[in-house]
Amino acid sequence: MHPDVHLVIQLQSLDHRITTLEKEVAALPKHIAVIEKALESHIRKLEADKAALSANQKDRKKLEGDIQMHQQKISKLRDQMLGAKTNEQYKAFQHEIEFIENEIRAAEDRILDLMSESEPLDLNVKKAEKALAEEKKQVEAEKTEARERTATDQKELDTLRQQRAQSVAIIPKPALAAYDRIRRKWNNTVVAEAANGRCSACQIVLRPQFLQDLRKGDQLMFCESCGRFLYYNPPVSFEDAAAVR
Q: What is the pLDDT of residues 156-206, one digit of tens each?
């Protein structure tokens, strides 16, 4: 393998790790925004349920007040009815009392309806308050974890960028220019292995003469199809591996 290819492979490894960390750092605020938006939605839903429950209780209280007022009015009418001097006056008092009693029954029916409506509202509010308390804890925990993860990633990024600068400084300019050009084109794999007579990146079959020249490792070579750096690793036999030990 040409020595410059070793340097290029190291640079590619650094760039892959840097890219992965940069994406993670960029994704963390988006994740936090999503969970905070969900939390805000749940808070608004709880506030709406509380407002509905409060309105329900206010309506019931008003109806109860109306009933009390009607009952007081009926009591006064009955007192007045005792002093009625004619049958027509007596019947008039009776009709007015019946009308008010109907108003009371309607109010009582409405109170029963409101009570049945308030039960699920009250239950929803209690459940939502409990769930929201847990969700707030979870969101805060995730935000803390995201801040810590971002700090760790940034620290590693600083180290990797320093290492990258050092690697770039020792790579010959023609090889570095080729690396940058290929990286802009493919945005991922810049270096590929020649395996089984093919480029491992684009899977195009390599010419026999090209492969023979690549095996010599005395010059930088690029895939004739995709343009990536190519390198060749000779297979290691069992006997060779045993000899190394």
A: 999 999 999 999 999 999 999 999 999 999 987 899 999 999 999 999 999
Query: With a threshold of 0.70, does the pTM exceed it?
Result: no
Instruction: Report the distance separating Cα 114 and Cα 108, nearest Å.
Output: 10
**70/76 Cα distance (integer angstroms):** 10
Region of 107 (left: φ > 0; alpha: ψ -120 to 50; beta: rest) is alpha
Q: What is the pLDDT of residue 187?
A: 82
**Strand, coil or helix: 207:** coil
- CATH code that applies to domain 12-170: 1.10.287.1490
Residue ranges of the chain that CATH labels 1.10.287.1490: 12-170
Which residues are CB-contacts of 228 (< 8 A; sequence separation ≥ 6)? 182, 186, 189, 190, 191, 192, 199, 201, 202, 222
Tell me, rounded to whole angstroms, the distance of Cα 120 from its chain centroid: 30
For residues 66-86, one letter each, b for 16 or more C-beta atoms within 10 angstroms of the residue's C-beta and e for the rest, the string is bbeebeeebeeeeeebeeeee
CA distance 60 to 111: 6
| DSSP letter assigned to residue 205 | B
Q: What is the pLDDT of residues 45-97, one digit of tens each?
A: 999 999 999 999 999 999 999 999 999 999 999 999 888 889 999 999 999 99
Q: Within the chain, how many helices (H) and strands (E) appear?
A: 5, 4
The amino acid at residue 37 is K
